[in-house]
Amino acid sequence: MEWSRFHRHKWDQATTFAWKNFSSAPVRRMFSFVTVLGRAALPEDKLKELTELTQEMKSSYSAAKICRYDPTRRRLDNGDYDYNADNDLDNDIGCIPTLSLEPHLVQLMATSRDPEELRYVWRAWRDAAGRPLRGKYTRFVELSNEAARLNGFEDAGDFWRSDYETDDFEDIIDGLWAELRPLYEQLHAYVRRKLIEKYGDTIVPPRGPIPAHLLGNMWAQTWTHILDLTVPYPGRPSVDVTNTLRRQGYSPFDMFRLSESFFISLGLEPMPSTFWQKSLLIKPTDRDVICHASAWDFCNGIDYRIKQCTQITMEDMITAHHEMGHIQYDLQYRNQPFIFRDGANPAFHEAVGDVLALSAATPSHLQEINLLANVDESFENDINFLFSMALDKIAFLPFGYLVDKWRWEVFSGEISESQYNSRWWDLRVNYQGVSAPLLRDEDDFDPGAKFHIPANVPYVRYFVSFIVQFQFHAELCKAAGHSGPLHRCNIYRSAEAGRLLRNVLSLGKSRPWPEALSVLTSGRTNQLEAGPILEYFEPLMSWLESQNKDEFIGWQENEAIVLGVVSSNASVRPFSAVIAALKSPSRRASLLSSTFGLRVTDFETSPVLWLRSDSSKAVQKDGMCLREPWNVLRNPTDFRAQKPHTEFT
Ligand code: KAF
Ligand code: ZN
């Protein structure tokens, strides 16, 4: 609040100038930033409400805990876990929710290979963290939009996109995704096949989206934790050094020191002493803290801190580099005027640490720092390495895109409150090709179970970061004199690479980001380009294509047999109801994940009710199998016996 008052005061002063006519471009640029008030434009009472709302959402998310999985809990006849019984997730007698996201659920999702347990955890987390936020989020959207409009933007999404200082930002993003989608689809098809080998084709549909609980991550956003199930050439040294870190007795501090030493090797800044004194690198046991990693610049030139509930894993070692990248950027632009002490755009800020991690995670570097032994540069080892990088960098892309696609549409009103969850799942299915492992409806609020939604941190920055970091990597490798394939490059100890990186970072936000890219590329380009990330993964792309020769690429929505069709104009939007039965519960649920906002009850005993707006794809006659986007169930007679459910007409 105090900051808002101060900001408004500065704004009052700044707007008295006819700054658009100033001759100095940097000064005009400064004014263009100071004269945007953001949420401080709201009247005091609403500003207070919005601030408190954000705070409440964040604390609620961070305090969420769930109960341990109990495999003895009641099951249905078909062996499916009976989630509706006794509401036992909420009030199970004797159950005290003790498991928190970090570290328990992160680890569970990463290591459990029991689909029932995974599905329980997946659901329980969304019940605990997402659902309670739904009402608050609706109000939050209203207030955010109001603030954005007071600043002259169309809505809060428009305001967020203005960070990128370009009118065709959405087209740029769309174009990049179109270039990368074929690679994603190849990875998706290959991983799906491996998951079928593990879990069988009743859980994983051969031509459908992948159930979201099987990918080793709570949001299916990166898939590195299923490397053991998917590794192209098993029986070779694992590029995941988690066990080695533990064996060698690494502490969280050691991991950050290791990361720091990479920065120093490039001639960049060491962390100031206050960083080591004041950072919180281990989760405290006596209170709830916001565990999601973050990096803080106290803007006084001395105090910089990281907060991270660090576990001894390779993933957290990479995250340590990521967070330290934020601090390094802060340090590099600290001599800029206050208003320019920021990333060229938000994606640049997210990219810095990842750029170093691209080198730090190479087998040759891990070998150099004694975390990996005997990896020769064979084709098979290269593919194993590239594949593990793809489970991180390529698997992430559609998620990095869709989170804000959802929010932009929510802010613009294109997604109404009654569609929050169903539209979320439309995007999840369409972009990621993943499906909910069980029924979702509009009492759920699955977007809210991802940190950045309650914490109100824009997300497309990570999508852009994942692209631009490969542009950085390519240029720094060139500066370092690297020859050979891009994925083998390691810039460790290259003063030249360090100098180039420093030149870009020290600009802060003083110039528009295309100019920063121009500095990076010695004038070759000032645009975001997918070329370098595609070049990096080219050997893997060819390999995947050959592996997927007989594979169905892409995904159709799940398979169903239609038992009946009913229509209605009674609800807010006209819809058709398709009564369908699915072969397995998980398929039935993922099918329902793209419903249209009506609650479906009694779904355990009755055939599934599937709702679609009438504008969408064709619906067929009773008793027929749907074709696109669904295909024929292999054994439809299983379901013929079931009576169509028509009480919904
Ligand atoms: C990135 C890399 C690998 C995997 C996945 C990601 C995406 C994303 C995620 O879903 O986990 N990564 C993060 O959220 C890392 C945290 C952070 O460093 O980006 C952090 C997010 C945050 C936390 C609290 C308040 C605001 C933002 N960002 C920063 O700490 C930060 C951002 C800009 C400048 C300085 C620091
Ligand atoms: Zn970050």
UniProtKB/TrEMBL annotation:
Keywords: Carboxypeptidase, Disulfide bond, Glycoprotein, Hydrolase, Metal-binding, Metalloprotease, Protease, Signal, Zinc. It catalyses: Release of a C-terminal dipeptide, oligopeptide-|-Xaa-Yaa, when Xaa is not Pro, and Yaa is neither Asp nor Glu. Thus, conversion of angiotensin I to angiotensin II, with increase in vasoconstrictor activity, but no action on angiotensin II. GO terms for biological process: proteolysis. Its EC number is 3.4.-.-. The active site is at 323 (proton acceptor 1), 323 (proton acceptor 2), 452 (proton donor 1), 452 (proton donor 2). It comes from the Eukaryota. The keyword Signal applies. Zn(2+) 1 binds at residues 322, 326, 350. GO terms for cellular component: plasma membrane. It is an enzyme of class 3 (hydrolase). Zn(2+) 2 binds at residues 322, 326, 350. Gene3D superfamilies: 1.10.1370.30. This is Angiotensin-converting enzyme. It comes from Penaeus vannamei. The lineage of its organism: Eukaryota, Metazoa, Ecdysozoa, Arthropoda, Crustacea.
